[in-house]
Amino acid sequence: MIRIERDNPGRADVQQLLSEHLADMFATSPAESVHALDSAALSGPDITFWSAREDSEVLGCGALKLLEPGESGTMQGEIKSMRTAAHARGRGIGALLLTHILAAARQGGYDRLYLETGSQDFFAPARRLYQRHGFGLCPPFAGYGDDPNSVYMTLALDSSRP
Question: Closest Cα to residue 122, out of 23, 37, 25, 18?
Answer without folding.
Answer: 25
